Here is the input.
Amino acid sequence: MRRKKNFRKKRPKDTAVGLAVTVHNNNVEGALKILKRKVKNSNLMLDLRKKEYYIKPSEINRQKRNMAKLRYKYKNDKEQNNY
Here is the structure.
């Protein structure tokens, strides 16, 4: 005799555009969890923090140069430690 499988109703695909979330069965906590995950994955908060105030282009270039120097330094240190 064949055993019955446990069938659960599947949620419909999320058709919300952008960062919108639909609430199913009054499950606001679950929808909030999904919304937080979407916001985190989209890096929205990082972009907002970057655009909080104006940064001069020369300042941006200086930061990029300094980060490149740091990466180069750590790369060299790592290579020297491996030998």
